[in-house]
UniProtKB/TrEMBL annotation:
Keywords: Signal. The lineage of its organism: Bacteria, Pseudomonadati, Planctomycetota, Planctomycetia, Pirellulales. Residues 900-1154 form the DUF1553 domain. This is Cytochrome c domain-containing protein. Residues 1-24 form the signal peptide.
Length: 1240
């Protein structure tokens, strides 16, 4: 056993202390970290218990099974609360202290100051950041680990002179095993300081602040073991700790000398030999790639006491080329982060001829390559990133003319190798990707060779592909990278599905329970209507239309029109906010019978035939602000009051609405061309291709529409289309530079994976609310974030209530909702369930008392939640939803004590009928253009127009495992969906929302932009969404959101900054059009509806934006140019453009118009082959990054990119310019037809 006994004095539990504190040589506290030790330490982060500590025979004073703790250096720590004032951990002048510990340092950077143990400087709220009472640290100087003692005195000057640090002049080598360290001091007597290493007292010096007789800072901040400063990595210990003790005396030299006893020769730890790994058989047609995470360091290879990490993932390639890592997933199949650094090991057998060759190695970070066991080439570690002042890196020269140049700040090494005999050789590459402060990205890792006598380079390929070389040129490498990306996507899908297999089984069982629930509470019966009505949706719609037609004859049309056009709008605008479904004061005015009954006062609001006896009129005309209604805003106008008075005098009749005949007549079914365009846009978000349209139009199958729907629902582009809807709904708000209000992680990737995998919406919502995986990597943990928000979980409560329950809680953030029934307590109950603990309302989210004191009448705003009152994790919506926190619910859960899981389950359980109906209503609205309930996010006071249809569809959703695709198919196969879009449902009252036709809809911003790219045959070619393309910062600081190929992948470009160096000119070209049509990258709050009203900017952007002009050009070797070159006739070319852009053939008038423009010169439009001059490629520009953006040259570079955007791509030289420009005008004209941006 160790000489230090595991003691924690019982007095630690007391609030006050009496002197003397302890008996000589008995520590105030010590921690042995034994396997069964129970101490009041709270672990945070990567603390690993029960690792081997100092043990015999080398350390004979320890037990053979002695254990220690390991800290990962990323803020990992033990936390111990200070018992209070005058505790044994508080030291001031005259107090003696000895701090001692056993340390096994794994990593220690030059200049690092890592904490063994310290009191204060935790950066906790309520404490100064410089409140260090005392600390024992390890400081690296000149390659040695030195012992350091630190404390702070009260600051009077605001500089660093109040810090006092003593550091030993001697030290030991990191990674040399276990060492005993100690520091002793009597506060107020600087000459008393001493430091000890392995039982020997070592000299030191005051290297900060100098000696002082001043007393240290003393407060009640915590004691931390293993870290400080909020968990800063530079202050965090990396390695093992054991036998830590705090003494309130200076131990004698003899006592400390006895602490350390070592037998035998100490092992010298050094770099491991760089030997090529033996990997056994590798198939001749593949490059074997393995990925190994949690490598010890990013800037060195293994030491002799370390072992190579196990394989975390495998992939098979076809060349020594790689630009990405496979994705990592947790055990739910949700994206998480690699434990960086990650080592990529690529190995394969390649054919090399005899001779002297040049091997080329490219890597972003540290790497090495062997050929047949011989180490040939190495690259250096990745360095950190400065904040803008780094010199601009010049554009790299290619290794040979016409070859692909290396990426920005990618290293390139060339070495000569000699092959004595032609034949196969084994090549192995190891490269480190990322690190503790870097994103785990490999750059463009490449191994290529230029063989003897050749001046060209080719990427190394396996034996069986030796006859199919991969030249190191842009076209070939980019094609190979595309194949790598496709292969990685398949691997990622497989990995995700395997990881989620257990969850799949759980959800299969849960969905069975959902089906059983529907069987117990079956769907409403489908109405029986005309025999021609086959579809359930149409049956409900027709039944309602028939009902309205029958009721229409019961009320005089003039009376009905007057009520619904004059009276009801006044009631709705002036009265329903408080006396609709909310029934403030017990009074409801959205129903005649309830209005006549009156509220709690017993006074009827309406006395039919007698306006003077009607409280409504009395309160509207009152001059007393205490009694006048409505209580806020301007008084009701005299004109409106007279309308209400006359209505009451005439008997206050509440007739059914009278509708014109066309409002009760179903519109015709659309033609096939219209249907295919509508179906494509509603499912995959882009217009159909020319081939898709012609094939569908020529198909004579009677069931071709249903087959097309099935085909589109199976299309992976489904996910691309639907992600953007959920981004708005859930306020997904990532930022590239600095986090702004309510900034979140990019949980778009969680949404995308869920949609690709066809997860039931109940599962997707549950996993979203559980906030798992890695926030920067795209896991649902990103949903938990809400930057600069004083109560982020309250913000999430608002989001989920509006998105999934149709409950608007925005006002409840600071007070009870004045026009809704929800209270502030309701919202913070949701926040507490998310937080898994009680919460209180922040002061900044509390209405100040003075607000109420100045009011002359009772305020509509109520604050029933007392300031500082804890709100417990309690479900507030049992009555509203039908879901109760009971044993039936617990059967759906994994941990019934987890309030966050409980909240997710309460929202998504089958018993919660509101959830399924809200989702159903949202899907219906997205396809039909108006909801059965309006507004989708706020159901209070807004009854459904077709309640039985809504219930039938919602239970259809539950009965089919909450599969949104099934619901979409049900709706799309109805006649209603396939009718002409002439409906007037969106603005109609519920009673008048009859769905005799779908609504006319404009395409979303994403549909417009993505369809422009698809229709013109262009790929989206914009910048990668990052300002740190060289991966020299952590994802939590400067993330990489990837290169967009669909509009939902864009993030805020922060182009509002007056700093050209931080602009993204190519992406801004796309964002300009997206923004014009309602898209916003800044989603600070959930949004169901975007701004859709037409404005003057929209036609201007469609006509004159760089995006439209560039995409409608017949640019060099573009699809539009190829169409023009290959066209057999003008008519065929016109047909092709119309089918691509508008999904239909031109009318006779359109054909005649454009034929006249294009016929002239058509036969002679091509430039003779001998006269074709290919345009010169544009000069490559240096890369601008966060590291160099403050350089003036960075502005110039980005301004040149902007100029190139304005210039557009070069024209195709195969077409004569005069005819080509007329052709481009034709394409531009079709794009600018109004119908392009409208759903057919």
């Amino acid at each position: 056993m160790n000489l230090i006994r595991p003691i924690l004095i019982p007095c630690l539990l007391l609030a006050t202390w009496s002197l003397p504190f302890a008996i000589a040589e008995e520590p105030a506290a010590s921690w042995e970290f034994g396997t069964e030790e129970e101490t009041p330490l709270r672990s945070v982060g990567g603390v690993h218990r029960d690792v081997p500590g100092p043990r015999p025979p080398s350390f004979p004073d320890f037990a053979v099974n002695n254990t220690a703790v390991e800290f990962d250096g990323s803020g990992a720590r033990f936390v111990f609360s200070d018992p209070g004032k005058l505790s044994p951990f508080d030291f001031t002048n005259g107090d003696e202290i000895t701090l001692e510990a056993w340390v096994n340092i794994r990593e220690l950077g030059e200049g690092d100051n890592t904490y063994v143990i310290g009191k204060g400087r935790t950066n906790r709220a309520g404490f100064a950041r410089d409140n260090q009472n005392w600390a024992l640290r390890i400081r690296r100087l000149d390659g040695k680990a030195c012992v350091s003692f630190l404390f702070a005195t009260p600051s009077t000057t605001g500089d660093q002179k109040h810090w006092h640090r003593w550091t030993s002049r001697e030290g030991f080598v990191p990674r040399s095993g276990w060492h005993h360290v100690a520091a002793t001091y009597r506060f107020g007597e600087p000459k008393s300081v001493g430091t000890w290493i392995d039982g020997q007292k070592v000299d030191g010096f005051w290297d900060m602040g100098g000696p002082t007789e001043d007393a240290p800072v003393v407060d009640d901040d915590e004691i931390w073991i293993g870290s400080s400063m909020g968990g800063a990595s530079t202050a965090s210990f990396r390695g093992g700790l054991d036998s830590i003790a705090i003494h309130r005396e200076i131990l004698s030299d003899e006592t400390i000398q006895k602490r350390f006893r070592y037998e035998g020769k100490r092992t010298i730890i050094g770099p491991a030999p760089e030997t090529m790994p033996a990997l056994g058989y590798i198939a001749p047609n593949e490059i074997q790639v393995t990925f190994h995470e949690d490598f010890p360091a990013h800037d060195r290879w293994l030491m002799t006491d370390e072992s190579f990490p196990e394989v975390a993932a495998r992939w098979t390639g076809k060349s020594f080329l790689l630009d990405q890592l496979p994705l990592k997933y947790d055990d739910w199949g949700i994206r998480t982060a690699w434990k960086a650094p990650v080592v990529i090991r690529m190995a394969g057998n390649v054919m090399l001829p005899q001779g002297d060759h040049t091997l080329l190695l490219r890597a972003r970070s540290m790497s090495r390559v062997w050929v047949d066991g011989k180490l040939i080439a190495k690259t250096e570690p990745l360095s950190g990133s400065p904040d803008g002042e780094e010199p601009i890196t010049p554009v790299a020269e290619p290794p040979a003319p016409g070859h692909r140049a290396k990426w920005h700040r990618c290293q390139e090494v060339k070495e000569r190798i000699s092959i004595e005999k032609s034949g196969p050789v084994r090549v192995v590459v190891e490269a480190i990707a990322g690190g503790k402060r870097f994103r785990a990205e490999p750059g463009e890792l490449t191994v290529a060779i230029s063989t003897d006598g050749e001046e060209t380079f080719s990427v190394l390929r396996p034996l069986n592909l030796a006859s199919d070389p991969l030249p190191l040129i842009d076209a070939a490498v980019e094609a190979e990278l595309d194949q790598i990306s496709a292969s990685m996507t398949k691997l990622n899908d497989h990995t995700r599905h395997v990881a989620a297999a257990i969850e799949d089984q759980r959800w299969t069982q849960r969905h069975k329970m959902g089906r059983d629930w529907v069987a117990s509470y079956p769907q409403p019966s489908v109405p029986k209507t005309l025999p021609a009505i086959k579809h359930p949706v149409d049956a409900f719609i027709v039944a309602r239309l028939d009902e309205v037609k029958a009721a229409r004859s019961d009320s005089p049309m003039a009376e009905s029109d007057h009520f619904h056009s004059k009276v009801l709008p006044i009631l709705r605008s002036e009265c329903f906010r408080c006396h609709g479904d909310k029934d403030k004061g017990g009074l409801s005015l959205n129903d005649r019978e309830l209005a006549v009954m009156g509220g709690f006062s017993g006074e009827p609001a309406i006395s039919p035939g007698d306006p003077h006896a009607s409280a409504m009129i009395t309160r509207m005309r009152s001059k007393d602000e205490e009694t006048r209604m409505p209580p806020t805003g301007k008084p009701v106008s005299e004109e409106k009051i007279q309308i209400i008075e006359k209505w009451i005098a005439d008997g206050a009749k509440w007739p059914q609405p009278s509708l014109a005949a066309d409002r009760t007549t179903r519109s015709p079914i659309v033609n096939d061309a219209t249907f295919i365009r509508r179906a494509f846009l509603d499912t995959v978000g882009v217009v159909p291709s020319e081939a898709d349209v012609t094939a569908f139009l020529n198909d004579e199958s009677p069931d071709k529409r249903e087959k097309l729907i099935d085909q589109l629902l199976a299309d992976p582009r489904w996910a691309d289309h639907w992600v953007s809807y959920w981004q708005d709904l859930l306020a997904e708000n990532p930022t590239m530079i600095n986090a702004t209000l309510n900034a979140t992680g990019p949980f778009r990737w969680f949404l995308y994976d869920s949609l690709v995998d066809d997860k039931g919406v109940d599962r997707m919502v549950t996993e979203l609310m559980m906030m798992r995986g890695s926030a920067p990597e795209g896991g649902s943990a990103g949903f938990a974030q809400a930057a600069q928000n004083d109560s982020p979980f309250a913000a999430k409560g608002h989001v989920v209530a509006s998105a999934f329950l149709g409950v608007e809680m925005q006002c409840a953030r600071c007070h009870d909702s004045p026009y809704h029934s929800t209270t502030q307590r309701d919202l913070y109950s949701l926040a507490a369930m998310f937080a898994r603990k009680s919460v209180t309302v922040p002061t900044s989210s509390t209405v100040p008392p003075g607000f109420f004191e100045a009011k002359e009448r009772e305020s509509l705003i109520k604050v029933t939640l007392k300031p500082g009152e804890p709100v417990t994790p309690t479900w507030p919506f049992a009555k509203l939803t039908g879901a109760d926190d009971d044993e039936q619910l617990w059967s759906l859960m994994q941990n019934k004590d987890d309030s966050r899981e409980k909240l997710a389950t309460l929202i998504t359980a089958p018993q919660n009928t509101r959830f399924a109906q809200v989702i159903t209503n949202r899907v219906w609205r997205r396809l039909i253009g108006a909801g059965i309930v309006e507004l989708p996010q706020d159901w209070e006071g807004n009854p459904p127009s077709h309640p039985e249809l809504l219930e039938w569809l919602a239970k259809e959703l539950v009965a089919n495992d909450y599969d949104i695709k099934h619901l979409v198919k049900v709706i799309m196969t109805s006649d209603l969906y396939q009718q002409e879009a002439i409906g007037e449902n969106l603005s109609a009252e519920p009673a008048q929302r009859l769905f005799n036709a779908p609504e006319r809809r404009r395409m979303t911003a994403e549909q417009i932009v993505d369809s422009l790219y698809v229709a013109t045959g262009q790929d989206m070619d914009v910048e990668t969404m990052t300002i740190d393309p060289d991966g020299r910062r952590a994802a939590s600081s400067r993330n990489n959101f990837g290169t967009p190929h669909r509009s939902w992948m864009f993030v805020s470009l922060s182009n509002e900054r007056d700093r050209p160096s931080l602009t993204f000119p190519y992406a801004a070209m796309v964002a300009e059009m997206l923004t014009a049509f309602g898209w916003s990258a800044d989603r600070q709050a959930p949004k169901t509806d975007r701004e859709t009203d037409p404005n003057i900017r929209q036609p201007a952007v469609m006509a004159n934006s760089n995006l439209t002009i560039n995409l409608t050009k017949a640019s060099n070797h573009s699809v539009l140019a190829d169409l023009a070159v290959d066209a057999k006739s003008v008519d065929a070319l016109i047909d092709s453009i119309f089918l691509r852009l508008l999904s239909r053939y031109p009318t006779d008038e359109e054909r005649l118009l454009f034929n006249e423009r294009l016929s002239e010169g058509f036969e002679d439009r091509l430039v003779p082959a001998s006269e074709i001059v290919q345009p010169e490629p544009r000069e490559r520009l240096p890369q601008v990054t966060w590291s160099n953006h403050l350089r003036s040259e960075a502005n110039t570079i980005q301004q040149e990119h902007a100029q190139r955007v304005r210039q557009g791509p070069p024209a195709d030289p195969r077409l004569k310019s005069d005819w080509r420009m007329r052709y481009e005008d034709f394409v531009w004209s079709v794009v600018n037809l109004k119908e392009f941006v409208w759903m057919p």
